[in-house]
């Protein structure tokens, strides 16, 4: 019988610095009404000078490890970090995170799928547990995305924030609360320019030779909206089919917190009642790879997720990439999202 992955811990972290809509109104020619009506966001968090993605990842991972139960051995034997903002272009950030967590010389690697990164990483972890390559996996989504935003771009400054979320998986059985039951993943490289940082990679290695706009993150908002709704809906339906669920059997939809309108539309397309669609975007904004695990951590801490709940997650990101997962929720002792001094 195929081994199943079971959720054993969850945790989230956001940096102390809060950027309010009032702050942004002072920077840009905009209003509170304009920001909220288009994004649903009131506040977002930003890393302080000297903070990086590894700092966020370590804090969220510690929270997840502290909440983990029934591991039956050493903490974890593999770390996967989903991020688009590694500490350096080389090497990967995950080994540094593992070292700072005191996890010795276990394997650790980064995975890049932008806002779909955590769902991709969760699927990889599930496959490695099924294959017997690992028994306990720490999966982290973390991004210091404000570090790659154009300081003069109102459209991106109002949407994105920094944060991290982490989940601990262990080998278990499909019938257990917390078992991962179905995945769907996809990608379309023909849409690579919808969400991009054009310069700084091997194709255009010297950003100083690029136009100013190409040195920063950019997205084509209206096109991204259309593709996000379509792909997040399609992939969620596919994951439900793998799990054998109907929409009326889903207790919670916890989708990528892209913007409030996308969340509302995806829920309606899936015929999941609005009161079952969880959102924390108002307080944290779009935290990219951290979005799904941070939302799960916040929902668990608030008592929104209960043992046995059928949970559906769905995401869309640059690449373009998309993915969804279906699982039940376990009994977990989850603290409120951590803030404050970094470890």
UniProtKB/TrEMBL annotation:
It is found in: Cytoplasm. Pathway: Lipid metabolism; fatty acid biosynthesis. GO terms for biological process: fatty acid biosynthetic process; secondary metabolite biosynthetic process. The keyword Acyltransferase applies. It comes from the Bacteria. The active site is at 115, 256, 286. Its main location: cytoplasm. Residues 257-261 are annotated as: ACP-binding. Belongs to the thiolase-like superfamily. FabH family. The last Arg residue of the ACP-binding site is essential for the weak association between ACP/AcpP and FabH. This is Beta-ketoacyl-[acyl-carrier-protein] synthase III. It comes from Micromonospora yangpuensis.
């Amino acid at each position: 019988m195929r081994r199943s992955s079971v959720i054993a811990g969850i945790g989230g972290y956001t940096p102390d610095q809060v950027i309010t809509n009032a702050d942004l109104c002072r920077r840009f020619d905009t209003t509170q009404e304009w920001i909220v009506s288009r994004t649903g966001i009131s506040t977002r968090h930003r890393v302080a000078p000297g903070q990086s993605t590894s700092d966020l990842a370590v804090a969220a991972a510690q929270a997840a490890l502290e909440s983990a139960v029934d591991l039956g051995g050493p903490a974890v034997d593999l770390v996967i970090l989903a991020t688009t903002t590694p500490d350096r272009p080389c090497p990967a950030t995950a080994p540094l995170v593992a070292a700072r967590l005191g996890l010795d010389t276990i394997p650790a690697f980064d995975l890049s799928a932008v806002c779909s990164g955590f769902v991709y990483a969760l699927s990889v972890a599930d496959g490695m547990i099924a294959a017997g390559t690992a028994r306990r996996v720490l999966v982290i989504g973390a991004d210091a995305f404000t570090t790659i935003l154009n300081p003069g771009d109102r459209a991106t400054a109002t949407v994105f924030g920094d944060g991290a979320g982490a989940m601990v998986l262990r080998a278990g059985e499909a019938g257990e609360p917390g078992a991962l039951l179905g995945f769907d993943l996809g990608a379309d490289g023909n849409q690579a320019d919808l969400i991009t940082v054009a310069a700084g990679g091997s194709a255009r290695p010297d950003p100083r030779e690029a136009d100013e706009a190409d040195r920063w993150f950019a997205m084509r908002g209206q096109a991204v909206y259309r593709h996000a709704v379509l792909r997040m809906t399609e992939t969620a339906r596919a994951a439900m089919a793998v799990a054998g669920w109907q929409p009326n059997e889903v207790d919670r939809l916890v989708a990528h917190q892209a913007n409030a309108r996308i969340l509302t539309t995806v829920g309606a397309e899936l015929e999941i009642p609005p009161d079952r669609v969880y959102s924390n975007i108002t307080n944290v904004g779009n935290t990219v790879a951290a979005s799904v695990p941070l939302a799960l951590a916040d929902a668990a801490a608030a008592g929104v997720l209960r043992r046995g709940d059928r949970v559906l997650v769905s995401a869309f990101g640059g690449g373009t990439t998309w993915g969804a997962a279906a699982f039940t929720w376990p009994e977990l002792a989850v603290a409120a999202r951590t803030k404050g001094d970094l470890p």
